[in-house]
Amino acid sequence: MEEITISQLAQLAGATIKGDSTKRICGFSTDSRIGGEQIVFLPIQGEKVDGHDYIQDAYANGIRTTFTSRKEIIPKTEEMTYLFVDDTICAFQQAAAAYRDQFTIPVVGVTGSVGKTTTKEMIAATLSEGKCVLKTQGNKNSQIGLPQMMFEFSKKHEIAVIEMGMSLPGEMQRLVSVAKPQIAVISNIGTAHIGQLKSREKIRLEKMSIINEFSKNGLLLLNGENDLLKEVYDAVKEGKENGNWDVLEKIDLLKETKEKLKDCNVMTYGTTSDCDLKAVQIRQDQNKNQTLFTFSGVFQAKPYSEEILLHTLGIHNVQNALAALGLALFFNIDLKQAKKGLECYQVPEMRGVIETVGRLTLIDDSYNASSDSMKCGLDILSGITKKRRVAILGDILELGELAEPLHREIGTYVAKSNIDQLITVGTCTAFLAKEAILQGMDKNQVIICHDQKEACDILKDVLKEEDAVFIKGSRGMYLENVVHKIKELFSE
Question: Mind listing the pLDDT tens digit for each residue in 214-230?
């Protein structure tokens, strides 16, 4: 972040000031426990907790500047500077958008139902081989986190790779109005947050809003193996070839999104022959945790071919790498340089990390879950040989009325996979377990646990030293505790 004064921040946010406007700031916090004189406290009003009630605590922890939508001043001290606004979140987003507008660097927006973080990390890894790249840190992809990332822009950066998440209607558009990406990647349209958005088509409508701030000739990269994204690509292709854009009316998208599609460049990536950027000759080595493939495609009328090494497994990771390589070409980074970035890429913590614990192989994918990502992880587990394959699966949350059928669908998938032992954790995965048995899995191979504590209690009796264990569930299932327990039991 380029250091700014309170006065400058107030101007960006449309706030009125009470206190010292000359003080300089260097960051923001929504946690009253994280303080410092140059940190601005951002109180968030939620359904159960109002951050304004913690301004006193923020002051006690060294914070001397805060946003507020309350008229009363707490604490009553001249040392505290107040930025009065109508809505703290809206004001912060406004300030972040105005701050971002001070920089002309291109912004790559990354979204999708699953794989956002991995794709973002791979893109940043490739682009960093030739450019100074700012990338989203941690999980700062939300209505609060993304604006925080905007304030990380500085004069040294040449490209920003920004992860963009949403769970409710209209959230993506608000993020887009702040970040204003001119290049975008959509990894897939799945069932994550379908409980709130009701259908995959509505999820697509929201995700596609990522292009709504595009200027002419923006670049949109779509996973060509995803049915709903392929439908968009095919419609755009037909519209450009025939000059008849009525084809877009068949797809449920916002009017402004349809208009942007007419002027932007749309490309697909994937493992099928009809993708613009594709992976061929894919070879996976489970023993070495490596994937080799040949990148093949045509970009701006020039053919490319390059062998790529990834230190991870899974076709979904190959797809993510293709998006990264496509952007390397877009930014004129030589493929031989870009591939070095992918070779150095490390899977983010809790997002499919494969490690050896004693003689046990652990696949830790406990950060979050969707039905699609769970199937991808099961594919990796199924491909591991010479070990007993154990899947520990927790509930996938936010599925609404589709919770039971989607969990049963995964149960069918488990039954058809090479899984030797299934342990489910939670209410919804009980449906998964029962369906796996109905579809032919031996009931003696299935254990149903109510919560992660119960799962931890049985691990010593169920797991064996040379097992391969895959762990995945939604964030709220706290399956990282199961991971910790396994490491405690089997570390040498």
Answer: 999 999 999 999 999 99
